[in-house]
Amino acid sequence: MGYCLVEVWAQQVQCIVDKFPTTYLGLPLGFSRNSIELWNPVIEKFRKRLDGWKGKLLSFGGRITLLRSVFSNLPVYFMSLFQVPAGVAESLNKIMANFLWGPEAFGPIHWVKWENVCRAKVNGGLGWFEISTRNRSLLNNRVWRYGSEDGSLWRRVVDSKYDLDSMSLLPQPPEGRKTSWIWKNISKPLAGPSNNFVNAIRFKLGDGRRIIFWEDFLTEVPSLKLSFPRVFGLVLKKSGKVCEFGSKVEGKWIWSFKVRRALFSWEQAVWDEFIRIINKGAADSGTMDVLKWEHASNGVYSTKKLCELESALGSTEDKIWKLVWSGLAPPKVEGFLWKVILGRIPTLVELDKRGALHSSSTRCALCSRDEETVNHIFCLCEIGWKVWSKWVNEWRIRLVFPNSIKQLLQMWDSLPANRALKEFWRLSFFCILWTIWLCRNGVVFNNLVYNEQKIFEEMLLRLGFWCKGEWHTSTCSINEFVRNPVLIALEEFRCID
Ligand SMILES: [Zn+2]
Fold it and tell me: Domain range for residue 467?
């Protein structure tokens, strides 16, 4: 048809003429494959939001906060329909990783591997996930919703296009070349190798009209057909839904099977086991057949839970991270403690390991006695240790010498017994750690001189300011606090409790 003619018609119905591929309601239309063009707007948006200059203005904590907001504002609808191509995911991850580590004074050293950053906080990550993991979790949600939104238009379109069973709770894995690339990518895990999403799907029996008796995962065994081949061979009916094999009478399922011959006595045990298993699967059946996802306590698939599971590989949950991300100290200090516990801060030894040392020595800037490792600065250093001890002595508490900062943090949390002071006490840990680091930086970069007394005084002043920020009810002045921190803290927090 001539283009001019189309234009004339369009004018008559007051429409504009456009060409495929295009976008409709913000979603791409008419792309014949998962092309880069489709994703360019998303990459551009990422680049714009995580522009280098913003990173330069923000502290490490600020960058974490901005990344978290970018992550929570991902184009969710877009990503729940289209699989992000590997190259695009790599670009997006790279933009995020460079933003996190980029503008430090020490050049773009990625102190923690991106895959370790992209984990739940309890697993030592920063609480967001790699793009492809998040994408898969959203695509799976569509498969999950297939079973719960059977009246919806999109499900009816999918069912009629691919000739699927409109009663089924899960779509059949796609076959053939006619399946669109979009649907193929969405339903891929159903046909693919074992995975955290599909492995945890169970069918919960209701009226038995939607669950395929021999094949669906109704019981504690994956498929009755594969688990009981002898019974399958004996029973005449080889296909059909659960309701075709029995019915519910007064809340209990009564089964009726026709077998092709009488059972041999030795087959009876297998048969009994088969009945026991299906009765167990049918116990406390509801009114409707539904899907259940075993990884969630409420049985409903959760994208967050899947991301946590997928990203946890190779890590273990550790309670220490709850103490790190307690929300008490400024975000940049929490982020700093996270790096300290992972042993990834730019001490002279760590810089030397990465070939980024600009000085001739790796000796500790504060005591100049030993190599400046992470553990040295915060635990083993004579000066650093005296600061911790001085604070603890003020409270008349004895502290056992720790092996690592992680151990010190654990010990710290078990002292003192006074519950009303718990948060204040935790905050003091962050404050000492941060002040030791800032003073150390003062020595390294500005040739300042620090002894334990000077570090201690700076720490008290900072702690006073932090407390003012954290607990606005405080009536005392910073000066009063610095002069007598223990007394003021006891007065302030006893009355709050
Ligand atoms: Zn030292």
Answer: 320-496
